[in-house]
Design a protein that fits this description.
This protein is α/β, with parallel strands linked by helices. It has helices at 19-26, 29-32, 48-53, 64-72, 95-98, 117-129, 146-151, 165-175, 188-191, 208-213, 215-234, 236-246, 253-262, 274-286, 324-327, 341-346; strands at residues 6-9, 37-40, 59-63, 77-84, 89-94, 111-114, 138-141, 157-161, 183-187, 202-207. The strands form 2 sheets. A 5-stranded mixed sheet has the order 2-1-3-10-4, sandwiched between helices. It has a 5-stranded mixed sheet with strand order 7-6-8-5-9. The longest helix has 20 residues, at 215-234.
């Protein structure tokens, strides 16, 4: 049995920065653009590029470094746009418990969690830069459970995002009677001298056969999500309330804070940034993920609106107060009910 629905796989269970995709469904923008979309959530984020590359899903969200690596492995995937632009990524740790400092050498002898194999490749390459070897630390594959693994003491630190895992740990740290700044990060872009965190930009990707055979559907999908993003930029509080209607677990203080921290990273025009692709392609060559013959698997051909100029390199996006944290979840808490962060992470 076949279906005319477009399938789109998220890069993990629904999290706040997925809002524009879900909002496009909620507001009926997909239907208005003449398409039907099934939004899917994977059990294992490492499966996403394989699922799309094998044609089992049409579209997906995935980080740039994984998108490049997927093509290098022979999967026909291509980036058709950017959702999150350069979210800060690095080794997240607790100052009070881990014995880790701003010196990379302090990772010696520590248990470091990582999501998938490329996280370990990045860490191993960094050890060589800083006079260590991969044997000087213990790599622990924890998938997307970095926060919970740190809380349970299974790892001393883990690779995570400033706008997700750091937010979760900060909220938990405050619940334990410590301050939010007990949570710190060794940023990979700074350690590796990359000049950007673009390797972890979250992209819209697609199966190349689907893209080539259905260009109008792909354009319609991107236009619908862009309309939803524009709605979000104009009225983030209302947009988030609609998201909560679809995903009630988003109505927690930690998820609201994740949205708040993610907001500055949302791409305003969804373009693939050529400068970033060049940097990450070179970084992947350095990591020996791709060779010198690699041709970038990205296009802006399906973005049917005027694109903005590339931003100034090295300038961090300003923090924006969306009002989403202060407006919701007020019961029994000055900023909302204190969530059981550990339970939320386990779920």
């Amino acid at each position: 049995m076949s279906t005319d629905k477009i399938t789109c796989v998220m890069n993990w269970h629904a999290i706040p920065y997925h809002l524009p995709v879900y909002l496009a469904e909620k507001l009926g923008y997909f239907v208005e653009e003449g398409i039907k979309v099934a939004i899917l959530e994977p059990n294992n984020p490492s499966d996403v590029t394989e699922i799309v590359g094998s044609g089992k899903s049409d579209l997906a969200l995935k980080a740039m470094i994984h998108t490049i690596a997927a093509k290098a492995r022979g999967f026909p995937v291509k980036s058709i746009g950017t959702l999150l632009d350069e979210p800060f990524t690095g080794v997240v740790y607790l100052r009070s418990k881990s014995g880790i400092t701003s010196d990379f050498q302090s990772l010696r002898g520590k248990r470091i969690g990582y999501v998938g194999e490329f996280g370990k490749i990045q860490l191993d390459e960094l050890t060589r830069q800083y006079g260590m070897t991969p044997e000087d630390y213990t790599a622990v594959r924890v998938g997307m459970n970095v926060t919970g693994s740190i809380i349970r003491g299974e790892i001393d630190a883990g690779v995570g995002l400033e706008n997700v895992q750091m937010v979760e740990l900060e909220e938990w740290s405050v619940q334990q009677g410590r301050t939010a700044d007990d949570v710190a990060m060794l940023r990979i872009d700074e350690l590796a001298h990359l000049g950007c965190c673009c390797f972890c930009s979250i992209l819209f990707i697609g199966n190349e056969n689907f893209i080539n055979n259905n260009p109008e559907k792909v354009k319609a999908f991107m236009k619908a999500v862009k309309r939803a993003a524009d709605y979000m930029f104009k009225d983030p509080i209302k947009a988030y309330d609609l998201f909560v209607e679809m995903k009630p677990h988003m109505n927690s203080i930690v998820n609201r804070k994740i949205f708040q921290r993610s907001f500055r990273y949302f791409s305003r025009d969804f373009k693939n940034v050529q400068r970033d692709w060049d940097k990450v392609t070179n970084y992947c060559k350095r990591l020996e993920i791709v060779d010198d013959k690699f041709e970038q698997n990205q296009t802006n051909d399906f973005l049917s609106w005027e694109l903005l100029p590339e931003s100034t390199p090295g300038v961090e996006p300003p923090t924006v107060d969306t009002g989403v944290v202060s407006c919701g979840c007020r019961a029994n808490h000055p900023q909302g009910p204190t969530p059981d962060v550990v339970s939320a992470i386990k779920a």
